[in-house]
Amino acid sequence: MNGKLILEDGSCFTGEIFGCEGIISGEIVLNTSMVGYQEIITDPSYEGQIVLLTYPVVGNYGINDSDFETIKPCIKGLILREKCEYYNNYQAKESLKEYLNKHKIIGISGIDTRALTRLICAKGSMKGIITNNDFPKEEIARFIEKTDNKKECSQDSNSITSEISHIPGKGAKVVCLDYGLKNSILQGLKEQDFDLYIMPRTTKVSEIMKLDPAGVFLSNGPGNPKDMNESIETIKSLINEIPILGVGLGHQLLCLSLGADTYRLKASHRGANHPVKDLIHDRVYITNQIHGYAVNIEDLPGDLIVTHINLNDNTIEGIKHKSLPIFSVQYHPNINQGYEDCAYVYTEFKKVING
């Protein structure tokens, strides 16, 4: 079935609809990873977004039962150059098309993703729609205008826990505040054998401290950190009480709580090959990143030290406090996607907790 991808600047791309049919709107963001489409589709950091995959052929290894980041897809739509009709992998249970259709996710293939990528890199992420219907231009413009990125990419997601859960461990007790925690980051915490309590982002400070944790972990997640005032106030109350590690969105929230500022990136970081330099140990890591906001280096508070920078654009990728047991990284130190080098982040957190 023929379909269209229409951007808010009026650009129109034609392709073929697969998965579910209908019409959807949202912010269009790109990911440059060669593999890992199953993890991308189910990553809470993409909540409510339409994801453009720049790699030209997608779907060749199908969908399996072991590589999900959450139990349900988080994206709103998927844009491809070419989808594989047939998959070949001993673990695969179904095709990408079947998976999207089952979960009522709209995809479109046959798009000139190279041209679309260049457009987004030049103008920044834009709102758009995917549809298999012919609507008048005026109606399409109204539909796009009504799209609220703040609402679409909010923390009100089924992928974010609403109840406290406990993962027993023999090590120190750690509270994880869930802003969109994904499996590959949870695995990093579990490998340190922490006695983990996963708590909703709305949990009060008194409830957190009632558990008498040895540390607090601030997870990855979607959205603009400046929209999360309640979470920022909670973190402010924890700063002088306990060791804290933030990752992804958790890094941004921690920095805001410490007096730093964040801003929207024109060229967002979403991909599996971002080079990050550890300024403390003079080492470079290849990292997985999923963020459209960054911490402003220009007005960083004097009690914070920049520990990591992105070698592509010199944006902040990590900080630590000069006197408090607090640090954070912007990239995602995933465990199950070939980024084992970055697992040192969790080891460092364990060292900080154990003194």
From TrEMBL:
SMART domains named among the record's database cross-references: CPSase_sm_chain (SM01097)
Keyword Nucleotide-binding: yes
GO molecular function, one term: ATP binding
Entry keyword Cell membrane: no
Active site positions, chain numbering: 332
SUPFAM superfamilies: Carbamoyl phosphate synthetase, small subunit N-terminal domain (SSF52021), Class I glutamine amidotransferase-like (SSF52317)
Record pathway: Amino-acid biosynthesis; L-arginine biosynthesis; carbamoyl phosphate from bicarbonate: step 1/1; Pyrimidine metabolism; UMP biosynthesis via de novo pathway; (S)-dihydroorotate from bicarbonate: step 1/3
NCBIfam families hit by this protein: CPSaseIIsmall, PRK12838.1
Name of the protein this chain belongs to: Carbamoyl phosphate synthase small chain
Originating organism: Desulfonispora thiosulfatigenes DSM 11270
Phylogenetic placement of the source organism: Bacteria, Bacillati, Bacillota, Clostridia, Eubacteriales
GN (gene name): carA
